[in-house]
Design goal:
- The protein is mainly beta and about 425 residues long.
- The chain has three domains: about 130 residues, Immunoglobulin-like, CATH 2.60.40; about 110 residues, Immunoglobulin-like, CATH 2.60.40; about 130 residues, no CATH class.
- Helix content is about 5%, strand content about 40%.
- Strand 7 and strand 8 form a beta hairpin.
- The protein is globular.
Length: about 425
Amino acid sequence: MRKIYRFSDRPFFLLILILLCFSSIAAQAQVVSTSVFEEKIHSLQVFIGDWELHYPILELGSDEVFSIHFDDFSQPQNTYNYMISFCNADWTISDLMKSDYLAGFDEQMIDEYEFSSNTTLQYTHYQLALPNQDVQFLIPGNYLLEVYKNYNPDSIVFTQQLWVFSNMLETSARMMKPSDPSKLISHQQVNIEINDVQHIIRDVFLDVQISIMQNFRPDRQNLLKSPTFIKGNTYIYQNKPENLFAAGTEFLHFDTKSIRFKEMRTDSITFDGTFYHFYIQPDELLPYRPYSSAQDLNGNFRIQLQNEKNSLLLADYVFVHLFAENNKYIMNHQLFTIGQFNSWKKSSDFSYNWNSQAHLFENVLFLKQGYYNYLPENLHAEQLLSPLENHAETENEYFIFVYLKDKTLNFDKLAGFLTINSHSGAN
């Protein structure tokens, strides 16, 4: 006779079921981010309209559109489609139905593309505008764009975070000197005030959370979950550790807009018969250097050719050689080049390696011509290396996102957004 197993006879079955449930919940709660998964995809950019230095943040119901651009090295070219998901404030995928957050239909083909012209490397440049005649955003919040190839939704080539806001809450911010005296010369403090004019906040401790991001860096992001003071319908967030940011220093840069004329930081430009190589002057990464003011893009980049309007199709791909001088402060650390151009990812593709011939640490990047901000940084963000000294004088931009829980559909609205510059104040 076959033996029948019962749950009561086999307690470990219950354990297995519990583990399966937890693994399922963990899979659903996975945090998503902007990432490129296909090595043939390069120069992913998302900005607003034609503002190439604008970040992927737009106001719901406005005439603004996200402009998504990327290059594909594949030959022959691939077919690309996109799909859109709605995310919670913490960038986990929400449980909303598509009809709750989208009008129309996603999973459409990206049919706007052109081929590069007069470049050493041939590529196909794709672009997509959102919202468009096929699909529109219905609610404010976090959206994730997923692009897949050859009609296979499982073959994701990149994901891109998008922010859609509606200023339901009046939000203001002020740059203040740190309340902690030990941080006065090294940190910056962002105090925030929310005025609930429409009386839509039911429980500020459960329903409201604020994300502050320095220079649009995901790894420089603080979360405020409770106010310091409440005055009627005004909620004040100040003097908390989450209001405080290490100030850093101004960004470094390299300029590859021209293959004929060297920019000040470029030592030399060579051609190997296939590609151009830009050799950038070595960075001296020593601590305790005094603050030096410099105009920068706060880590951003721009695809650009010298004296050309159609840079997105005419710009070439070049090798950029970055160097760092060897010293005791970096010799035992893993060093990376980071910036908006690589979504601030500290991956092996952007790491420095020892060049025994030059007696320097070297990082070789393959990038489209343009102007780029960057920083050399250690693997661990808290172990900052010069020139990542912290100077309170540093010019930084802070992005403030205010999320409000919608009790009816149980999702996080992006109910307030503003930016503030450490030098010029709020925008």
